[in-house]
């Protein structure tokens, strides 16, 4: 049997007494997975190892604990850190993301995941201390994104414009302007993918994009609608937000239009999501730990992109093309 199924009869309950958690266990706007309520406890299954069990298991601290076990097993079986060369181990704890989407960043579930992932990371580091030696390894710790608030918890200061509604609004604008609404192929998040014909026509017809902007701008959610050429030019902008949008644009993969939402608004139907330019989505930890680094908190800009160049510097690896920079102030 799959070792994950050892948790088949498990129930996710809080690791600490209720008083240790901030806020309510049934927060405004929580949207738990099918079969779970907004409040603890959360059973993983009904006794059957089906798709629902595996989905719930991923959305619980059990998956992070299992991942820590896998990392420890890799250290032992591959004898990482005990050879002549440099070994690299990458571990991505993902339960926080999955739980945060459904319950929101202030939920008891997110707080509990943080308590437990802290314990899992501590267990992994303790094992490295015991097997490799505390001065014989380094850790680079970061995240790929932050998270926005649950809009309903903010009242009038937040809101939603789901992707399906964005599509309807754009189709209505093009139907009114061109007499042809069937030009939107898909909307993923706030990226709008147009038909080949619509893409070509918008490049020369200012009325089309003006109609889209007018329709979307009539509500509270949207602050801008940008075309692909505008996004590409934004890469060189002195405006940090325009530059961020431009750097996020990938020709041929990103949408033909980007709908920029107001702060505290989301296009997701989950409790909370990410993917905007706002500070709550962009701010993540950048932590370096180990004998190669100087203790302290360092000012100035830093990015997850800087981790690879920093690790390359201390290990003597030459990168063909580095997208970040070495955080030299933190290196001994």
Structural description of this entry:
With 332 residues, the chain is of the alpha+beta class. The strands form 4 sheets. It has a 4-stranded antiparallel β-sheet with strand order 5-6-8-7. It has a two-stranded antiparallel ribbon with strand order 1-2. A two-stranded antiparallel sheet has the order 3-10. Strand 5 and strand 6 form a beta hairpin. The protein is globular and about 70 Å long.
Layout of helices and strands:
Blueprint: E1 11-12, E2 42-43, H1 51-58, H2 61-77, H3 95-103, H4 108-131, E3 138-141, E4 159-160, H5 163-178, E5 184-188, E6 191-194, H6 196-202, H7 206-217, E7 222-227, H8 228-234, H9 240-247, E8 257-261, E9 265-266, H10 279-282, E10 287-290, H11 307-315
Parallel strand pairs: 4-9
Antiparallel strand pairs: 1-2, 3-10, 5-6, 6-8, 7-8
Please state how the strands of the largest beta sheet are arranged side by side.
Answer: 5-6-8-7
Which spans of ≥5 residues are poorly predicted at pLDDT below 50?
none
N to C succession of SSEs: EEHHHHEEHEEHHEHHEEHEH
User: Quick one: overall form?
Assistant: globular
Domain tally: 2
* Name of the CATH architecture of the largest domain: 3-Layer(aba) Sandwich
The largest pleated sheet is described as:
4 strands, antiparallel
| CATH fold assignment of the largest domain | Alkaline Phosphatase, subunit A
Structural class: alpha+beta
Mean pLDDT: 95
Task: Count helical runs.
Answer: 11
CATH class value of the largest domain: Alpha Beta
CATH superfamily of the largest domain: Alkaline Phosphatase, subunit A
Write down the Rg: 23 Å
Number of strands: 10
| Share in helix | 25-40%
The share of residues in extended strands comes to 5-15%
């Amino acid at each position: 049997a799959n070792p994950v199924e050892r948790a088949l009869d498990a129930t996710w309950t809080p690791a600490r007494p209720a008083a240790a958690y901030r806020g309510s266990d049934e927060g405004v706007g929580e949207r738990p997975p099918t079969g779970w309520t907004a409040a603890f406890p959360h059973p993983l299954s009904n006794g059957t190892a089906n798709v629902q069990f595996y989905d719930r298991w991923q959305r619980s601290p059990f998956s992070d604990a299992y991942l820590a076990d896998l990392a420890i097993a890799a250290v032992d079986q591959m004898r990482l850190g005990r050879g002549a060369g440099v070994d690299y181990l990458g571990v991505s704890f993902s339960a926080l993301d999955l739980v945060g989407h459904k319950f929101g960043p202030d939920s008891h579930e997110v707080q509990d995941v943080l308590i437990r992932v802290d314990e899992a990371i501590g267990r992994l580091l303790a094992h490295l201390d015991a097997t490799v030696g505390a001065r014989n390894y380094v850790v680079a710790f970061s995240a790929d994104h932050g998270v926005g608030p649950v809009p309903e918890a903010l009242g009038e200061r937040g809101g939603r414009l789901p992707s399906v509604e964005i599509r309807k609004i754009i189709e209505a604008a093009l139907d009114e302007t061109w007499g042809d609404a069937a030009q939107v192929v898909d909307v993923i998040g706030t990226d709008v993918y147009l038909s080949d014909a619509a893409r070509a026509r918008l490049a020369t017809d200012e009325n089309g994009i003006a109609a889209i902007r007018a329709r979307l701008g009539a509500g509270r959610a949207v602050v801008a609608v940008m075309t692909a050429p505008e996004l590409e030019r934004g890469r060189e902008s002195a405006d940090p937000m325009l530059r961020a949008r431009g750097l996020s644009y990938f020709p041929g993969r990103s949408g033909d239009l980007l709908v920029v939402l107001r702060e505290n608004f989301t296009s997701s139907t989950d409790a909370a999501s990410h993917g905007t330019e706002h500070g709550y989505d962009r701010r993540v930890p950048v932590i370096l730990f180990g004998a190669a680094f100087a203790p302290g908190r360092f000012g100035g800009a830093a990015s997850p992109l800087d981790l690879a160049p920093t690790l390359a510097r201390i290990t003597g690896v030459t990168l063909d093309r580095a997208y970040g920079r070495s955080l030299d102030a933190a290196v001994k």
